[in-house]
Amino acid sequence: MLRATKVTKSFGHFAVLKGVDLELQQGEFITLLGPNGAGKTTLLRILATLAKPTSGAIELAGIPLKDAKASIRGLLGVISHQTFLYEDLTARENLVFYGQLYQVAHLTERVNELLARVGLERRANDRVRNFSRGMQQRLSIARAILHNPPVLLLDEPDTGLDRQAADMLQNVIRELATGGEPRSIIMTTHNLERGLAMCDRLVVLAGGRMVREAQARDLTPENLQNWYYEAVNSRNLKP
Asked: To which H or E segment does residue 184 belong?
C-alpha cells in the first residue's frame, strides 16, 4: 500500500535518514519506535508528502509519489503534533471546511457521524480554541479520516495528553484499525507498551536506519523493553 525504498534525507552535511526501506501492507498497523533524533518524524513527513527525500523513492498504491497527481494524496490521512485545525472555527466548521476541500459526498451526514465517533457531538458548535489538547487531537482524527483515506500516518498522537485522554485516543485509533473499514496505519510513539498493544508489527529506527523489526505477536510487555533497547544500543549499527 505504501512503500519507501532506500530513502535518505540530509540537511546540509547531516544525514537524518540513511537508506530506509519500509513497506506497509494493506490493512497493516505498524508502530515505529526509536529515540529522539532517530528520524521518525522526518520519515513520516516524507511519507505524507510534506517533505521531499534527498534520494530514494516513495510509492503509494503502486504509484511513485514524485509523479503522482494531487488526487493520489487523498489516499493519505495525517495526524501530527500540528492539528491543522482553525482555532476560530467550531469543530463542525473545521470539518465542513476540509470536507469541501476533499469534495466529500453527503458532507453533513459524514460530519455528524465523525463528531459522534470521536465523542465530540456535544461540542460540535464550540470553537476549537476552547478545546483541551485531547479534544483537539480527537477532532484532528476526524479531520484526517473525513475523506475516508485508506492510509493513516500518526506522529506521536498522544503527545501532551493526560492518561485519560490518551486512553480515549487509543480507543479511537484501535477502532479505526479494526473497524468495518480497516486502514493501513503507521504510528510513531515513545510509549512502548501502548505501541505494542495497538500494532501488527513493530519497527525500530535508530541512527537514521531501520535496525530491528518483529511481529507484535512475538513480543510481550515483559520482554519488549529489552528487545527495544538492544536494538537502539546495538553496536552493529552502520555509521
From this structure: strand 184-188
